[in-house]
Amino acid sequence: MENNFFKSVIDADDAPVVICDLEHTIVYMNPTAVKRYEKRGGAALVGKSIKGCHNEDSNAKIEQVIAWFKKDKGNNKVYTFHNEKEKKDVYMIALRNDEGELIGYYEKHEYRTRESMAMYDLRNGEN
């Protein structure tokens, strides 16, 4: 039952979430990621290698980060990119099992634009 809660959190995220295993296979994409990467295949990317979506330099960096994640259970987050146009920072995040062993990774997008929604506005777009 708890997996439903975790999936709901990921699916509700406005940022794209693409989860990969250690063989770089895409194992899950949230709805935002499916839409964002629609021109590259969208949901059909699940089951394929993330390396097919990146150039040689990016793939080498992914391998470097994975090696760093494996060195220590405390190595879990790496800043990888800033997108000025979208005002976001991008990170690679380690995914670990209960024993702390590395089982995969995902890319985390953190937007830096101040929220325009009014606080506690429960109208859902109604005026």
What does it look like?
There is one protein chain. This protein is of the alpha+beta class and 127 residues long. 26% of the residues lie in helices and 27% in strands. The chain has three helices and five strands. The protein has helices at 2-12, 31-36, 56-71, and strands spanning 18-21, 26-29, 77-83, 88-96, 102-111. It has a five-stranded antiparallel sheet with strand order 2-1-5-4-3. The protein starts with a helix and ends in a 16-residue tail after the last strand.
Summary of the model, kept short:
The chain is α+β, with helices and mostly antiparallel strands and 127 residues long.
What's the helix and strand layout?
Elements lengths: L1 H11 L5 E4 L4 E4 L1 H6 L19 H16 L5 E7 L4 E9 L5 E10 L16
Antiparallel strand pairs: 1-2, 1-5, 3-4, 4-5
Main features:
127 residues, alpha+beta, 3 helices, 27% strand, globular
Give the percentage of residues in beta strands: 25-35%
Shape: globular
Mean pLDDT: 92
What's the total number of strands? 5
Helix/strand order: HEEHHEEE
How far apart the termini lie comes to: 37 Å
What is the oligomer described by this structure? single chain
Strand order of the largest sheet: 2-1-5-4-3
Backbone structural class? alpha+beta
Uncertain runs = none
What is the share of helical residues?
25-40%
Report the sheet with the most strands, covering strand number, pairing sense and barrel closure. Answer: 5 strands, antiparallel
Q: Could you tell me the radius of gyration in angstroms?
A: 16 Å
Annotation field: number of helices: 3
